[in-house]
Hints:
It contains 16 helices and 20 strands. The chain has 4 domains: about 15-135, 3-Layer(aba) Sandwich (Rossmann fold); about 170-235, Helicase, Ruva Protein, domain 3 (Orthogonal Bundle); about 240-355, Cobalt-precorrin-4 Transmethylase, domain 1 (3-Layer(aba) Sandwich); about 355-485, Methyltransferase, Cobalt-precorrin-4 Transmethylase, Domain 2 (2-Layer Sandwich), CATH 3.30.950.10. Helix 11 packs across helix 12 (about 335-345) and helix 14 packs antiparallel against helix 15. The chain has helices at about 20-35, 45-55, 105-115, 155-165, 170-190, 195-205, 210-215, 215-235, 255-265, 275-280, 305-315, 335-345, 355-365, 410-420, 450-455, 470-475, and strands spanning about 15-20, 35-40, 60, 95-100, 120-125, 135-140, 145, 240-245, 270, 290, 320-325, 350, 375-380, 385, 385-390, 400-405, 425-430, 440-445, 460-465, 485. S-adenosyl-L-homocysteine binds near residues 356 and 433.
Amino acid sequence: MQHLPLFARLDKRRCLVVGGGDVGARKVRLLLAAGAEVTVAGPALSDELRELRNAGKIHHLDGEFVPGDYGDETGGGPTGTGNAPAGPGDIRPYWLIIAATSDRELNAAVARAAESANRFCNVVDDADLGNVIMPAIIDRAPVTVAVSTGGSSPVLARWLKGRIESMLPMGLGAFAGLAGRWRTHVRDNIGDLDQRRRFWERVLESQVPESVYAGREAEAEATLDRLLAEWHSRNPEKMGEAWLVGAGPGRADLITLRGRQLLSQAEIVLYDRLVGEEVLEFARRDAELISVAKTPRKPSIKQPDINTLLINHVRAGKRVCRLKGGDPMIFGRGGEEVEALVEAGLPFQVVPGVSAAQGCACYAGIPLTLRGAAQSVVLTTGHTERGIAEVADFSPGQTLVLYMGVAKYAVLAERLIQRGYDRQTPVAVVERGTARDQRVICTILEKLADASEAHAVESPALLFVGETSQFAKDHGWFAPDRLIIHP
Ligand code: SAH
């Protein structure tokens, strides 16, 4: 993170804008909206700023602005005292300084002075000069959304702002205001923090926001009051629940909508090795994220321990998201966790995910079924608890998809040949499918081990065996630069 976003309370705090043109005026408007006491420095004022000065809304420091120099010695905070002489160029009385002149040298000098006096300074249109940058702002006071690209693309920031803007109801601020007024009352009524969160989530899904957006505040307050009264009769105990959620094959945008909703509500997230970091971003910021990674061929947490962890947290009243790579019910041991939950008599939900077979097939351009070429799909594994799997027999028109077992491709290929597969059968290995660095390696069955070794294939990788595998050569639309055709 290049910049830490903060929301500054500027009411009645002194701020300085150097430059009285139209650019400066835009910043002055923002500062005034935040309640700041604004001084504008510079020889000329725009019409708007002149009017503001005449109305006594801003101060004006006339003449060329010459910022002081504070050397290494600093003021130690906005009320501190430095050694540089106080005067019109003194920037120390200000919390925030904005350099908005068209003179790059002057802007740089203002930024240097601010830096040496430990003040925040923004240089308009030059992210590198100052020490703070201004975000694009969506204002639904008291809700504020700020978007920044770290100064790299203001156009992108504005575009994002537009997208977010269109998602947020206009009445959002009014709803936030109502929630703010009820906050203490609700806290007094629902002591437990988790419970209180759930109450507010319930409110968000209720009629209350719509009533507010429709301008019916009294109705909204009455509903809120009723929900609060009902809360205690309906929730005598804090109920936990387990949610087995498929996170998809890695890309954050391939999780389902439902999965994402539940993930963002969970208090605890138990996640697997194959769950992408970006997906975890959907979790609540205060959620406890616990890795229960099982790494191939390394000592790691055992399945019974994961079951126990899950059960204990649900029993303690937590909403636990058990987040699994791909689909929870496909080589995800979801069935075992469900069994443990049923035995423990605990409530749960299971949300499907895009399994590696589907994700990799789509992102590699391999049809799993195709008229005239493949009528059935077998999802199997190259590896079981007892070692190499008993792979499937050859059957015409069948696409075979093998999960796991990357290290055993040589043995697996031999087994498949013993089971009737032609040595020339097309195969494709998809490594880190759907991820930015996905690789696809196309070859034939007898050269599988060779290809895998030559290109140092690593887990996670998926093996496709069958006629349609070769479509990856011409139909691979994603990351085509990393398509390898092994001779
Ligand atoms: N439940 C998961 C599978 C877990 S088993 C699912 O439905 O996808 C783990 C195996 O899945 C890995 O060894 C690998 O064979 C496969 N896999 C998972 N994600 C993958 C990915 N992004 N690319 C290629 N293979 C993947």
